[in-house]
Every structure is written in C-alpha cells, then in structure tokens.
Amino acid sequence: MQIQTNFSLRHFNTFGLESTARYFAEVRSVDELTEILLDPVWQQTPKFILSGGSNVLFTKDMDALVIHPDIRGIEKIKEDDANIWLRLGGGVNWHVFVMYCVEKNYGGVENLSLIPGTVGAAPMQNIGAYGVEVKDVIVSVEAVAVNDGTLRVFSKEECRFGYRESIFKKELKDQYIITNVTFKLSKNPVLNIAYGDIQKTLQELNVTEATIKDVSNAVIHIRRSKLPDPAQIGNAGSFFKNPEIAETQFSALKNRYPEMPGYPVNDRMVKVPAGWLIEKAGWKGYREGSIGVHERQALVLVNYGGGNGNDIKRLSEKIQDSVEEKFGIRLSAEVNFV
C-alpha cells in the first residue's frame, strides 16, 4: 500500500474541484484499512475518508491523510423463494450494483438507478429517489472504527436512518469507515412507480406491463434529461434537501402559489421540492463566472470548469437567503462542505 504526498483530489470529487491532500492512501481490503489505522506513524495524523466524492464540496486543501476505500466484491449470503441477501464491498460503484440487480430481476433498488457514488457512501447519506430510500433494502452495515481499527456490524435500526441522514452523518460522523453493506432484495418485485414522472415516462416509452428493468430505464431517462453528467459538467447532483414543512405553512403558501407542488409526509408535514423553490426564486440557469445553477435543474449547482469551492458555497448561501426571504423556508445543504 502506497502513501502518496501532495496528491490532487480533482479526479476524486464529482465537482472537479482542485484540492490537494497532504497524504493519500487507497485501500482495497479491510486488512489494509486496519493496517494503516493502527500504524503508529499515522495514528496522530488527522484523517479524512473520501469515497466516490459525489457528495462533497472541497473549499480548501486537505492537511490530513485522505483514505480512499476501494473494497470490492458482491457475495450472496443466502436466499429463499422470496428474497436474496447480498453483501457488497463499500467500493462497488452504486449504479453498477443497481444494474447487477436489474439484470438478475432482484427488486428494490431500481428506482435508485444512475445515482453517483459508491455502495459504502449510500447508507451514510441514506440516498433516495422516486419514492425509495436505500434504508428500505439495507440489512446491516459493517464499518471500521477510525480510532482503533475495530470492526463493528450495525443493524439497520442502529444506523438510525432518516431523510438523507444516518448515524454516520451525525453522532458517529468521521468515526467509522464503511467497508461492507448487506442488502435484502426481492425475487418477486413490487414496482414503485407512483412518485415523480415515472408513470408518465413509462407511457412515453410505450411500456404497458412494466418490469424492474423498465422502471430503471425510465429513471435513467428522467435523470439524464434533467441532470448534467459530472464527466461533462462538474456537479454533485442535488445540492439541497427537499424541505419538510408544517401542513399549515404549506396551505398558506399554496394560497399564494397555487402551482406549488407538495408531497404529504404524514398528517402534519409536507415535503416541498427544493428545485421548485429555487427556480421560482429566480436562480435557474444563473451563472457567475465558472460556477452557476444548472439551466435544466435548479437543484443542481455546477462547476463549468476552473470553479472554486468557496464560490459555490457562497452561491449556495445566497440561494438559501433568497428562498427564505420569498417563501419563509430555509433550505439545508445535502452536500457536505469540507
């Protein structure tokens, strides 16, 4: 295992932002990870875990040992007539995993097609799209403690999943490195096509009796039509969370803005699309030098090339202030600032 110095992270974050790691190590097994964590040479050095880099905004150089976990592998744990349990390395590309499941007709993750990042990062953020969250299919998460290299298995309940949240983003932030995740998938899939434009897109694609492959194709079609490819334009997907507001507040806003969309969370709370709020506040397509707001999806902040992380951070704060002034709703960033 090689420790590199003054290592550029530009190709390790989907914004394509320049940041230099003082030290950088790529680990491909739990043993390698434990070895570097327990090495006396590195124990007092600050550490930063960088997985797929699809949810991070670099605003500075990293005066730390940046560890890039790249543990691969897909292993069948068990199966019965209804379900199959798969254990995956945290370094597996998320979309590759989804395509693996789609091809084998294992249901549960097809709505999460084309989300950038890795399997290990998915539970940290509790990624979600089109009415599905990754917590719906997670059984357990294996992680190594940064301070002493011990391996711990977290049950689904112990992960304390919430909307784009988990124990790894809150109480145990920066304390564990996710190495493997076990999923329970259905061999008799029940399709979830009620959210967003999936039904409409299936009709446009002339699909009458949908399969999970059809649903996946529809989601991919929608995402490609709305979201920029990070390989072409630097971005981290959805920059802000969709806010959940009180039903009374939503009703009041609906009187002022009859076209405002909302999705009931329960009998008291309503989820409002952040992209709609940002667009109505006038930010869609806004550009400021090398950075801006995507022209087709206001929820996505972009780096057109040569952008600066602090400039993107300042732009995000302007958007937050603007939306709060217009709607009385304070947006929360989904992207992690570093």
From TrEMBL:
Residues 16-188 form the FAD-binding PCMH-type domain. Gene3D superfamilies: 3.30.465.10, UDP-N-acetylenolpyruvoylglucosamine reductase, C-terminal domain, Uridine Diphospho-n-acetylenolpyruvylglucosamine Reductase, domain 2. InterPro entries: FAD-bd_PCMH (IPR016166), FAD-bd_PCMH-like_sf (IPR036318), FAD-bd_PCMH_sub1 (IPR016167), FAD-bd_PCMH_sub2 (IPR016169), MurB (IPR003170), MurB_C (IPR011601), MurB_C_sf (IPR036635), Oxid_FAD_bind_N (IPR006094). Pathway: Cell wall biogenesis; peptidoglycan biosynthesis. The keyword Cell wall biogenesis/degradation applies. It is found in: Cytoplasm. Keywords: Cell cycle, Cell division, Cell shape, Cell wall biogenesis/degradation, Cytoplasm, FAD, Flavoprotein, NADP, Oxidoreductase, Peptidoglycan synthesis. Cell wall formation. Belongs to the MurB family. This is UDP-N-acetylenolpyruvoylglucosamine reductase.
